[in-house]
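User: Hi! I have a protein structure encoded as tokens and I'd like to know what sequence might fold into it. I'm fairly new to this, so please keep things simple.
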């Protein structure tokens, strides 16, 4: 499923546009271990879904409704978290998202915070479920 980067996509490198249009990370999961949903101050919404085995993220999907910056940040967060341990994924920062995107407009820096916050919330959902089970 290709997402429309819409207006403003011209500021992003082709690799970022390709990442956003790559269906590998985009979509929802019904059989995940953890999930999260956050709505940003700009009314953009983001979801993350995680499959975790032996404390490692082995499956990750995002779903985002909003501007191309929101979708780009979510896609980059998913790419960076894929295959990482829980502890490694918790080290992903908004600054790293901004650096990797190479073109995030200054008035959309909050989208990077939304992406890592939503990712962290999904990880917290997993940790709370596993702590409650032990």
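Assistant: Happy to help. Inverse folding works backwards from shape to sequence: for each of the 134 positions I chose a residue that suits the local structure. Here it is:
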């Amino acid at each position: 499923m290709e997402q429309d980067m819409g207006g403003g996509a011209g500021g992003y490198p082709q690799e970022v546009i390709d990442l956003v249009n790559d269906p590998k990370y985009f979509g929802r999961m019904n059989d995940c271990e953890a999930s999260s949903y956050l709505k940003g101050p700009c009314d953009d919404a983001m979801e993350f879904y995680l499959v975790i085995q032996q404390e490692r993220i082995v499956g990750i999907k995002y779903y985002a409704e909003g501007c191309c910056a929101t979708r780009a940040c979510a896609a980059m967060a998913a790419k960076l978290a894929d295959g990482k341990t829980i502890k490694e994924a918790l080290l992903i920062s908004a600054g790293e998202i901004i650096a990797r995107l190479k073109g995030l407009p200054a008035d959309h820096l909050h989208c990077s915070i939304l992406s890592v916050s939503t990712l962290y919330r999904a990880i917290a959902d997993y940790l709370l479920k596993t702590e409650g089970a032990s």
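A useful reference point when you look it over: The chain has one domain: 19-133. Feel free to ask if any position seems puzzling.
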